[in-house]
């Protein structure tokens, strides 16, 4: 089973590369270069803050967009183009297919993010002429961004297993936005009474909690991130992704292909 | 497409593009100027924070750059009004409560009288209080608060309390304790003011704040020198029964060693009525002495 | 043990979003395919041939019924590993080359890397794509894609090969090659099951056929028997218009174009016609079975009378 999943994952990665997705790295590089003149306008203390905020926000946004736009067509495109027929006629389980696609896209994003992280650190060194221990903290923020991608890819894949690309993109985008408000929703749920409370509470648990993954500003100001947060976030994202993927596998395994 | 038509289309494309740049500039020139709401984009800080999803830090930095730009532009035009400064700073610090430089810079320039600032010391105090709330371990913010209470409001007791409070913060600079003491003993003296501005000049990373401190120090020098020069003039009057014609005359009688220059290197002006005046008063907005009548 | 046993496969589709109507894709189908035979699945467009294949491949789920492949449940992965499938108008990942595609599919089918390295070049050569092994599939013509399709269907040396309209989109050369390929596969001992609406191919290749129409099985039969039991008329073509009258008197239907006569006559009178032609030293052009006897059977099963010649 694992070698099939690996084969599917590798093929997914190959597709992303040949689809020239990695060209987004060029835009990222251009973005970093374009901010150079801006940095001259502001004081040294804020330069570092701005660079971290900008780079990490860009990594997060670029990656989220890629996750959604590649993720939504993972299944639906294959069904539409009927490239799925020769694959599923082989002893490939529907669940294996979902797992392989997920790992392939996750791997693509991991590669993409690593490249951007390298680019960022190079720029940081070029601007600040010094990279120290405090800058290692930034890796935690990048790690959290990767966790965010894991969740978003799972969600996009989930929607792709039964919905059209356009609707999938819409749902995924809405959940991404809502995910940043999940904590507010929970606070809201605790402050009201009656049926709205239950509804809000249920929604706040179903919606992925993406807000606690965004520590970009904190890292920019050299604030420490607790190990407990890292641990719990990792666990949460893994659990959430696995749940979503199981859902995708269940739905997909019942789907009649046209 | 044939080569000929390709060329034609390419030419058409480039000429239309360039033309549209010029027209766009004209359009901007004749459209009504932006209102305060336009400047702020989003008038509610909380809304801005919501809308920015998780990227509020970046948005804060963008707003910060707009603040600096806004102030710079207005200052260049010698504006007497900086209505948007406080709201812009509010949005910036709501988006990123830990952007310490915004509090420091913001409260300084909110407090200073126009055209060097907004002249709104209530807003300045509010801002710096917000800064301390969100960054309770930043001793420099306490220093800034004390400084505003000292320079803007002349509330020496409150200033002393602020400095004292700041001195309890871990890793606090000893200057806080010194300032606290000075507030209680020596608040009105120019020596205290000079000490204050020197501290700001040394501690601040921000170029604007450093330049501002330099300017204040220069003004203090003028405030110190002008009365002395005035004294020399009045002594001349007592001796010779008339106003001196020029600085040279004073030099020739041995009252002065050389032509007195202001911190920028320009000579002071000796008016016909015997008043000592700074040659470019606009360059020294904080002086009390040597201003033209 | 039978190669394929379909036990009452049914497929009903619900169409429409608000007012759901039922559309019948396949009515209860019972079918058997023996090991080692070439089985033709005939029917007009929309009969349900592709639906049946998709059901067997597990791409679509039956509303009722089961099937067995080589004695196992049709959903069993073991069974899946022993069959190959060529879909109608296959689409493959166009950013891959045939080499990469076959390598990928091979690994999914459980072919070891060593075997893949060995088989893929040989297979590409066998289907005539040896020179295009490293060209991206997006540049391939329909015929070339069909060759890739057949390659991926047999890569893992399956016992049964399922082909959905294998001749579609092929030029005459391609069709000849596909026919030869099917016969070669059968000689290797593989069972071949293919759907088609081209009767001449079925007649030439198949041991047995089934006729499907509007989701219903109309009949199955052994081709040799069907051909033999048909009316058995012969078509004789010669040059010599003057002999047409004589042929007509023997009960032949004659059609003259210039000096060429085409006569269709009962098999029992063939020798007499040939005697006349030889006697008159007329130039004999061809002697063939008249029309497709399978065609007769086909239209009979469809419930329509055969077309006049």
Walk me through the topology.
The complex is a heterotrimer of chains A (258), B (293) and C (309).
Chain A: H1 2-18, H2 24-34, H3 36-41, H4 44-71, H5 73-81, H6 85-88, H7 94-128, H8 133-136, H9 138-160, H10 165-179, H11 182-191, H12 195-206, H13 216-220, H14 227-253
Helix pairs in contact in A: 1-7, 2-7, 4-7, 4-9, 7-9, 7-14, 9-10, 9-14, 11-12
Chain B: H1 3-30, H2 36-40, H3 45-51, H4 56-76, H5 85-95, H6 100-111, H7 121-134, H8 139-151, H9 156-167, H10 175-186, H11 190-203, H12 207-240, H13 247-252, E1 269-270, E2 276-277
Antiparallel strand pairs in B: 1-2
Chain C: E1 4-15, E2 21-33, E3 38-42, H1 49-57, E4 64-69, E5 72-73, H2 77-81, E6 83-86, H3 98-108, H4 113-126, H5 142-154, E7 160-164, H6 172-187, E8 191-196, H7 199-205, E9 208-213, E10 216-222, H8 223-229, E11 233-239, H9 244-249, E12 253-257, E13 260-266, H10 270-279, E14 283-289, H11 293-302
Helix pairs in contact in C: 3-4, 7-11
Could you list some keywords that capture this structure?
heterotrimer, B: 293 residues, mainly alpha, C: 309 residues, alpha/beta, 11 helices, 14 strands, 30% strand, globular, disordered C terminus
Account of the protein in words:
The complex is a heterotrimer of chains A (258), B (293) and C (309). With 258 residues, chain A is mainly α. Chain A has helices spanning 2-18, 24-34, 36-41, 44-71, 73-81, 85-88, 94-128, 133-136, 138-160, 165-179, 182-191, 195-206, 216-220, 227-253. The radius of gyration of chain A is 20 Å and the shape is globular. The model of chain B has no long low-confidence stretch (mean pLDDT 84). In chain B, helix 5 packs antiparallel against helix 6. In chain B, 65% of the residues lie in helices and 1% in strands. Chain C starts with a strand and ends in a 7-residue tail after the last helix. With 309 residues, chain C is an alpha/beta fold. Chain C is globular. A six-stranded mixed β-sheet of chain C has the order 6-7-8-3-9-10, sandwiched between helices. In chain C, strands 2-1-4-5 form a four-stranded antiparallel β-sheet. In chain C, strands 12-13-11-14 form a four-stranded antiparallel β-sheet. In chain C, strand 12 (253-257) and strand 13 form a beta hairpin. Mean pLDDT of chain C is 86; it is low at 305-309. The chains are: A mainly alpha (258), B mainly alpha (293), C alpha/beta (309). The interface between A and C is medium-sized, with 25 and 31 residues.
């Amino acid at each position: 089973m694992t070698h099939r999943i690996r084969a599917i994952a590798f093929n997914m990665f190959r597709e992303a590369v040949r689809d020239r997705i990695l060209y987004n790295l060029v835009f990222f590089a251009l973005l970093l270069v374009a901010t150079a003149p801006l940095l001259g306008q502001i004081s040294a203390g804020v330069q570092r803050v701005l660079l971290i905020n900008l780079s990490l926000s860009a990594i997060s946004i670029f990656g989220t967009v890629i996750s959604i736009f590649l993720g939504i067509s993972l299944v639906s495109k294959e069904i539409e183009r009927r490239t799925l027929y020769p694959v599923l006629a082989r002893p490939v389980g529907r669940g294996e297919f979902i797992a392989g696609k997920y790992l392939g896209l996750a791997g693509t994003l991991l590669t993409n993010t690593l490249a951007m992280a390298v680019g960022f650190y190079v720029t940081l060194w070029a601007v600040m002429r010094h990279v120290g221990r405090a800058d290692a903290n930034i890796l935690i923020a990048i790690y959290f961004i990767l966790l965010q991608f894991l969740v978003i890819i799972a969600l996009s894949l989930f929607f792709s297993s039964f919905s059209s690309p356009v609707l999938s993109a819409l749902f995924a985008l809405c959940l991404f936005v809502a995910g940043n408000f999940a904590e507010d929703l929970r606070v809201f749920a605790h402050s009201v009474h009656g049926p709205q409370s239950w509804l809000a509470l249920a929604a706040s648990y179903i919606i992925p909690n993406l807000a606690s993954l965004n520590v970009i500003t904190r890292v920019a100001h050299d604030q420490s991130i607790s190990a407990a947060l890292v641990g719990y976030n990792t666990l949460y994202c893994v659990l959430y992704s696995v749940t979503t993927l199981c859902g995708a596998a269940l739905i997909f395994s019942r789907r009649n292909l046209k | 497409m044939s080569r000929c038509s390709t060329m034609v289309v390419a030419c058409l494309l480039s000429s239309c593009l360039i033309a549209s740049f010029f027209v766009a500039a004209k359009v901007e020139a004749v459209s009504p100027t932006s209102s305060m709401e336009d400047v702020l984009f989003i008038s509610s800080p909380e809304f801005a924070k919501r809308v920015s999803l998780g990227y509020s830090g970046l948005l804060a930095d963008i707003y910060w750059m707009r603040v600096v730009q806004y102030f710079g532009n207005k200052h260049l035009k010698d504006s007497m009004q900086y209505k948007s400064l406080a709201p812009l700073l509010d949005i910036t610090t709501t988006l990123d409560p830990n952007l310490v430089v915004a509090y420091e810079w913001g409260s300084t320039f909110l407090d200073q009288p126009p055209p060097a600032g907004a002249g709104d010391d209530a807003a300045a105090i509010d801002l710096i209080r917000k800064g301390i709330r969100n960054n309770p371990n930043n001793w420099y913010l306490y220093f800034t608060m004390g400084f505003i209470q000292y320079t803007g409001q002349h509330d020496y007791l409150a200033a002393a309390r602020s400095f004292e409070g700041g001195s309890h913060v871990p890793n606090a600079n000893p200057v806080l304790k010194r300032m606290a003491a000075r507030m209680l003993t020596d608040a009105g003296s120019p020596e205290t003011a000079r000490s204050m501005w020197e501290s700001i000049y040394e501690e601040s990373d921000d170029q604007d704040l450093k330049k501002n401190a330099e300017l204040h120090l220069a003004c203090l020098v003028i405030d110190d020198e002008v009365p002395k020069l005035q004294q020399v003039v009045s002594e001349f009057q007592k001796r010779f029964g008339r106003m001196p014609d020029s600085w040279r005359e004073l030099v020739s009688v041995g009252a002065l060693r050389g032509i007195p220059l202001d911190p920028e290197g320009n000579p002071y002006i000796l008016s016909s009525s015997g008043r000592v005046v700074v040659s470019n008063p606009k360059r020294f907005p904080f002086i009390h002495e040597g201003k033209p009548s | 043990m039978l190669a394929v046993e379909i036990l009452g496969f049914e497929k009903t589709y619900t169409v429409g979003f608000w007012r759901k109507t039922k559309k019948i894709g396949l009515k209860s189908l019972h079918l058997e395919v023996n090991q080692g035979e070439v089985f033709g699945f005939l029917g007009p467009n929309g009969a349900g041939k592709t639906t049946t294949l998709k059901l067997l491949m597990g791409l679509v789920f039956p509303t009722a019924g089961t099937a067995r492949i080589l004695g196992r449940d049709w959903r069993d992965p073991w069974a899946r590993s022993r069959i190959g499938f060529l879909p109608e108008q296959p689409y493959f990942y166009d950013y891959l080359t045939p080499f990469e595609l076959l390598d990928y599919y091979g690994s999914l089918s459980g072919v070891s890397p060593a075997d893949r390295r060995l088989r893929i070049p040989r297979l590409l050569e066998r289907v005539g794509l040896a020179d295009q092994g490293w060209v991206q599939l997006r540049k391939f013509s329909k015929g070339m894609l069909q060759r890739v399709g057949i390659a991926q269907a047999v890569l893992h040396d399956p016992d049964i090969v399922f082909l959905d309209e294998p001749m579609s989109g092929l030029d005459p050369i391609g069709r000849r090659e596909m026919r030869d390929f099917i016969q070669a596969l059968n000689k290797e001992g593989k069972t071949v099951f293919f759907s088609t609406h081209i009767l001449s191919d079925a007649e030439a290749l198949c041991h047995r056929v089934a006729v499907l129409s509007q989701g219903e099985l109309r009949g199955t039969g052994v081709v040799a028997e069907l051909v033999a039991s048909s009316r058995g008329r012969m078509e004789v073509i010669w040059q010599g218009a003057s002999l047409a009258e004589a042929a007509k008197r023997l009960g032949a239907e004659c059609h003259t174009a210039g000096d060429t006569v085409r006569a269709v006559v009962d098999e029992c009178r063939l020798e007499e016609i040939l005697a006349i032609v030889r006697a008159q030293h007329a130039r004999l052009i061809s002697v063939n079975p008249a029309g497709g006897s399978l065609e007769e059977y086909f239209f009979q099963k469809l419930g329509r009378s055969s077309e006049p010649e």
